Amino acid sequence: MATNVLSPPEFRNPPISRPPDRKSALAIKSDTLIPALLTNLAQKVAATASATYRPLFGIGVTEWRIIALLAGRPWIAPVTICEATGLDKAAVSRSLRQLVEGGLVEVRSGEPNRRRLPVALTEEGLEVHDQMVGVEMDRQEWLLSGFTDAERAQLREFIGRMSRQANAMKVRD
User: Fold this and answer.
1) Fewest beta carbons within 10 Å, which of 70, 71, 128, 159?
2) 3-class SS at 110?
């Protein structure tokens, strides 16, 4: 007899009679669940971004996110990059190492804590950023080509509201 090893008895759901087709009566439809839809969309956009950026610029979407941030906020610490982008420390560290080795990012020394060493784009990094902006704006225009200006504004508002709610969820959970 199988037991539920993932949760104590007081947290188990009551037994459900399972149909022979192995489908759950509680199955979530991923085409209606907003978090699933957003995750799938983000994965598609990120995958196509990397496929576009790597051949043109030799960098992927993670490096692009860091470059885009540093273009407007130079001389910030890697920990600030993590906080601003939602990327984990390991991804930021790997990407910064690649960007430094490629001559696109400079590290200012002098801070005793390496995770606090401020970084900024080099002149070459700024040039790559400026070229990438055009590509990214073209990608955005193509993605939103079926939307009116009013719908685009509404979409930005909806995304902003969901982002604020997601931040509140972090505090709540």
Assistant:
1) 159
2) coil
Around 124, how many Cα atoms within 13 Å sit in the side-chain half-sphere?
9
Tokens of 105: 């990012």
**For residue 12, what is the DSSP state?**
S
Q: Are the beta carbons of 158 and 79 closer than 8 angstroms?
A: no
Q: Which residue has the higher pLDDT, 23 or 49?
A: 49
pTM: 0.77
Higher pLDDT, 12 or 56: 56
Both tokens of residue 169?
């969820």
Q: Where are the domains of the chain?
A: 56-172
Please give the class, per CATH, of domain 56-172: mainly alpha
**Most distant CA pair in the chain, distance:** 66
Residue with tokens 């590290």, as numbered in its chain: 107
